[in-house]
Structure formats: structure tokens, C-alpha cells
Amino acid sequence: MQVKLYALSTCPWCKKMKQWLTEKEIPYDFVDVDLLKGAEQEQVLAEVDRLAGKRSFPITVANGRVIQGYKTDEVMEALQNEK
Q1: Fold (CATH) for 3-81
Q2: CA quadruple 74, 83, 20, 46: dihedral positive or negative?
């Protein structure tokens, strides 16, 4: 099970997604894009653009499936389909 979350540190929906993943005991990596600087931030934003086509946070990548927004049902579905 692989989950990566692209978030903004000030985004309430991003915070809710982090909290939900933690409560469900789903291991995940995350990056707060707005806290990155310079080339590192540019690289991550390019990755976000490639994955999602737009910059709308949170963006969750669950087992290769890209999910925009706070859509916990879609995250669970992606994780269950890959088990």
C-alpha cells in the first residue's frame, strides 16, 4: 500500500486528509508544497501538474491512482482494489 499526499500547510482540507489517514492507520508520505523553497518547490509543483493537471489541494496518490480533494471514499477504494 503506497499513499502520498501533496498538501498545503494552511489548507483545512489537507489537514483533514492527514488526520483521516492517521486515524485509519494508513501509512503515508506527505509534502507541504508551500513550505518548500526554490527549485525543490518548482520540481514538486511540476510533479503535481503532471499527476493532476491542475493545482488543487489536497492531492492523494493511492497505489498509483490520483485523487483530488478530500475524497476518503475514493482513497479507500483505491487501496482496497490494490490489495
Answers
A1: Glutaredoxin (3.40.30)
A2: negative
Report the chain's mean pLDDT, rounded to a whole number: 93
DSSP, res 32: E
SS3 38: helix
**Domain extents in the chain:** 3-81
Q: What confidence tens digit (pLDDT) does each residue in 25-54 have?
A: 999 999 999 999 999 999 999 999 999 988
pTM of the model: 0.91
DSSP 69: S
Beta pairing, strands 3-7 & 59-62: antiparallel
CB 34 within 8 A of CB 8: yes
